[in-house]
């Protein structure tokens, strides 16, 4: 049984892999075996037929009602010395042991088929804040875009109107995944679980099934969006899951690009801009957390620049905005652009910690505690930013082409205030006086 171990002094992460899945080897003809070996060429990407897929994929991905065998265990071991130091030179350190057990999929020969076009892209999580911008950018650049969307009462018609193909599947149901990958060259994974769902269901179990299936079906490129600093917070479930997913992708042998993100500008509209305009309370904390927000349109644009750049192959990149901002600085900027003061309600970080510990006592509130843990990180004395000079140089992008938060919010408030003035003018014209 193969085993891969990563060490960073604080964490020992193991992903044991059972015997790799492989198709039965064909019996070569002794007469032409030597000549076939001499003239062998690298295989081209092929589109599998439905018959060959059923035989090639793991049975759990083709049998309804079966879940991928997976165990997720986090346990604190006894204090151990740092592996890079002598035992006598330093004190004991706490080691976090994270074990991720999942059946790995090996390359499988799935027979002859139609060559897959490099422009064929599957976007997972296409209706989200980032996913829809990725779809829009891919279509603008001439890609053939397929969107994996959960079955929903309100269909994602806007994606079809843009020109994308919509396929229904659910990452929490692995048997629905294989059909969506037929004829796909590149998978761009923007998906994340809904707030009401357990974090583990989509962000770990669903992603493992998707990655395994991508490997089994010969997907040529896998793009995964992660979180900046996810390797520094093993006690936060979402951060640790993102970090383990990164390692899981790297261990599969897929050609990947992992992109760590700091924060989206779009999220500030509902959190700060709209409440200030509607004269409602704006919630914040007293922590000096700094986040380098980035426009999702810039994230999508840089993603496709990286996708076409061979230097970004099997790289871990971090996308960060031009400047990092505290909560109070964002609120002050919104107040200035809106021309009115905000009604700020400050929540002490200690209250978040207490609430998280309280919800840990009850099984039915564990998911709430997991999400509060992530909120606590965002409310701590942390800087979610990274230097972008090397990334710009690698991708051939100039810093001046990245939208700043001041410009983004200025455009938003100017458009909104202009519309509000227009509505007031129409209201006055329609008034009837007796």
Explain what you see.
- The protein has 434 residues and is an alpha/beta fold.
- It has 13 helices and 17 strands.
- Strands 9-8-7-10-11-12-15 form a seven-stranded parallel beta sheet, sandwiched between helices. Strands 1-2-5-4 form a four-stranded mixed beta sheet, covered by helices on one side.
- Helix 5 runs parallel beside helix 6.
- The chain is globular.
Task: Describe, in short, the structure shown.
The chain has 434 residues and is of the alpha/beta class. The N terminus and C terminus are likely disordered.
Uncertain ranges: 1-111, 356-369, 427-434
- Radius of gyration, in angstroms, nearest whole number: 25 Å
Q: What does the largest sheet look like?
A: 7 strands, parallel
Q: Could you tell me the mean pLDDT?
A: 74
Strand content: 15-25%
The SSE order reads EEHEHEEEEHEHEEHEHEHEEHEHEHHEHH
Number of strands: 17
Q: Write down the oligomeric state.
A: single chain
Q: Specify the overall morphology.
A: globular
User: What is the number of helices?
Assistant: 13
Estimate the helix proportion, in percent. Answer: 25-40%
Structural class: alpha/beta
Strand order of the largest sheet: 9-8-7-10-11-12-15
Distance between the termini: 88 Å
What labels describe this entry?
single chain; 434 residues; 7-stranded parallel sheet; 35% helix; 13 helices; alpha/beta
Write the layout of secondary structure elements.
Blueprint: E1 2-7, E2 11-17, H1 33-38, E3 46-47, H2 50-56, E4 70-76, E5 96-102, E6 114-115, E7 120-124, H3 131-140, E8 144-149, H4 157-162, E9 165-168, E10 186-189, H5 199-216, E11 221-227, H6 237-252, E12 256-261, H7 267-277, E13 281-285, E14 290-291, H8 296-307, E15 315-319, H9 327-338, E16 343-347, H10 349-359, H11 366-378, E17 383-384, H12 389-395, H13 405-429
Parallel strand pairs: 2-5, 7-8, 7-10, 8-9, 10-11, 11-12, 12-15, 13-16, 14-17
Antiparallel strand pairs: 1-2, 3-6, 4-5
Helix pairs in contact: 3-8, 5-6, 7-9, 9-13, 10-11
